[in-house]
Amino acid sequence: MRNKILFRRMFAIILAFTILFSQSAFITPILSIRTHQQGSSVEITSWYTHHWDMINSLYSCRESGTGCWVAQNYRVSAWLMSAQSVMIDSAWKEPQLKFWAKYMSDRRVNFTYVEVQVEGETTWDRIKYYGGTNKYWHQETIDLSAYSGKKIYIKFQYEPNVRTGSDDDRGRSSRSSNPYNWQLFYVQGVTVGPKS
Q1: Torsion of CA 168, 173, 177, 179, to 10 degrees
Q2: Alpha carbon distance 114, 102 (integer Å)
Q3: 9 plus 38 within the same structural domain
């Protein structure tokens, strides 16, 4: 009898811990919530994702070991959003968002947008757009002066583009049965800080 009671208590404790840890794991973002200081710049390393993949490939990423994000399903809407807001220090001279990117598209249409949301607000400001092809890693710089003194979230919004007719982007007739624009967008090394 005593062993049964002890067994039931042990089982209840194990069950409680299992439920507790499984629920906390469910609400944790893909990467832990943190940012890294680089001098006076802040590197964003924690993201909430929807249809973006983290890969670590010498062929695809700019640097090995750190990995890069890619949106590659050209049939769905996808986003990569900072898991924590970043303070745009009012002491920063010409604050900027910097990141490395490369992208490919079989049509010259906009398909990826950089958006900013001020903490506490519900709307997103679309501050930059990308389309066409730039298949080599290059650093992008976007002015954030309008957000000086505010806490902001950064989002990369990726949209599918459906062909609207039977012509391709050069005006030629297309025989493809795929109505979508084939496209990829890669991001790596996202930082916020003063102009350097």
Answers
A1: 30
A2: 14
A3: no
Q: How far apart are CA 36 and CA 101, in angstroms?
A: 20
My answer on whether 14 and 97 are in the same domain is no
| 97: containing domain | 32-193
Residues 157 and 179 placed together within one structural domain of the fold = yes
CATH number, domain containing residue 143: 2.60.120.200
Are residues 113 and 47 both part of a single domain?
yes
Is the Cβ–Cβ distance between 128 and 111 less than 8 Å?
Answer: no
Q: Return the closest-CA partner of residue 95 out of 139, 45, 148, 140.
A: 148
66-70, long-range: CB within 8 Å, 24+ apart, which pairs?
A: 66/188, 66/189, 67/188, 68/100, 68/186, 68/187, 68/188, 69/156, 69/186, 69/187, 69/188, 70/184, 70/185, 70/186, 70/187
Local structure of 83: helix, strand or coil: coil
DSSP 9: H
Residues 70 and 24 in one domain: no
Number of domains in the chain: 2
Per-residue model confidence as pLDDT tens digits over 116-169: 999 999 999 999 999 999 999 999 999 999 999 999 999 999 998 876 555 455
DSSP 3-state of 137: strand
pTM surpassing 0.85?
no
Do 25 and 44 sit in the same domain of this protein? no
Higher pLDDT, 91 or 179: 91
Cβ distance 144 to 109 under 8 Å?
A: no
